[in-house]
Amino acid sequence: MSMFLDTAKIKVKAGNGGDGMVAFRREKYVPNGGPWGGDGGRGGNVIFVVDEGLRTLMDFRYNRHFKAQSGEKGMTKGMHGRGAEDLIVHVPQGTTVRDAETGKILTDLIENGQKFIVVHGGRGGRGNIRFATPKNPAPEISENGEPGQERELQLELKILADVGLVGFPSVGKSTLLSVITSAKPKIGAYHFTTIVPNLGMVRTQSGESFAVADLPGLIEGASQGVGLGTQFLRHIERTRVILHVIDMSASEGRNPYEDYLAINKELESYNLRLMERPQIIVANKMDMPDSAENLKTFKKKLAENYDEFDELPQIFPISSLTKQGLSMLLDATAELLDKTPEFLLYDESEMEEEAYYGFDEDAPAFDISRDDDAAWVLSGDKLEKLFVMTNFDREEAVMKFARQLRGMGVDEALRARGAKDGDLVRIGNFEFEFVD
Description:
By secondary structure, the chain is an alpha/beta fold. The protein contains eight helices and 18 strands. The protein has helices at 173-180, 230-233, 256-270, 291-304, 326-338, 381-388, 395-408, 410-416; strands spanning 7-13, 46-50, 65-67, 87-91, 95-99, 105-109, 115-119, 150-157, 163-166, 198-203, 209-214, 241-247, 279-284, 314-317, 367-370, 376-379, 424-427, 430-433. The strands form four sheets. Strands 10-11-9-12-13-14 form a six-stranded mixed sheet, with helices on both faces. Helix 3 (256-270) links the parallel strand 12 and strand 13. The longest helix has 15 residues, at 256-270. It is elongated, with a radius of gyration of 32 Å. The termini are far apart. The relative contact order is 0.11.
């Protein structure tokens, strides 16, 4: 079984903020010492870092849950709890990170050492030293830490290569890669020898260099998932130039020109933008009988089916076995790369807007619904965050939470919906009676 893994779904959870502390200064010669409880520490973020030493997403095959540490609780003497260290997760170059729920792209990690915070840790709760006022110099109020963010992510690896080799199985892509680079792909006389992408670096005689990817052979229907399907096609999206390798000897009994049309149709069906990439046609196996005659027929059909205003793609006859014509092919590829810009992989509609970790001012502060047992259910991001950060072990904190609900208009809204004195109100697992 192949040990190459190019997709993974994982869950990440940032650390919660540490709880604030309720404490008082009690020293022999310090009368009326006052509050002395410190704030909790910040929860750890989960950060993705690009590691050029990684080639696959295999590390995520068995480890799918990543959780950062929570911050320490606040301490007496006004001391803050220690903030938690961030959790660093290494990913290979070319990893696209999507939100599994929305499908939006969070980031595209392509540079070695590039960092991205995928979930943010919660801030620490405030200790009672923060709530002292002239009216209430000894508050017994503290906050719980803010919950860390949590989300499910879809990781997708699209390998980084300047040039991609495409073509039907057994047209000689792996052999070509092995003679123009130091890569050692497994080569055999049977279909689908290549079941994982292989990468190699090419250096031309003029000193230019570029990365080439030999990708698993396409067959008709690959864009709909037939054969290796999209396992191959996603990896060509980052390439700037396509080398379309064709078996000009027709040794497999296929027509070279029909092969050319079929592969382009699959590329177009998968992603129309793949056809924007310039192609060089590599007429391989020219050392075989009938290859020269087949190449003449191929060129004639190609010219007949191209518009007179369209520029015909370059055709380079080669033999990977005898190394015939390779230097001209590589020089032309390097020249085409020099004048071909990077292709934008994603448009703005696919990207998630820059993350904002506060509250949407236009969003309602709370929502009211009715449960099956006739209890009133309060929900909403702002309200639920206030609830989680309230320390219900302290009466003053509970009263503060009640005042916050009243200030948000919860009482009035419940009354308008028909809530009566003694009705049950629920927030999460917490229940209380409505007092009119």
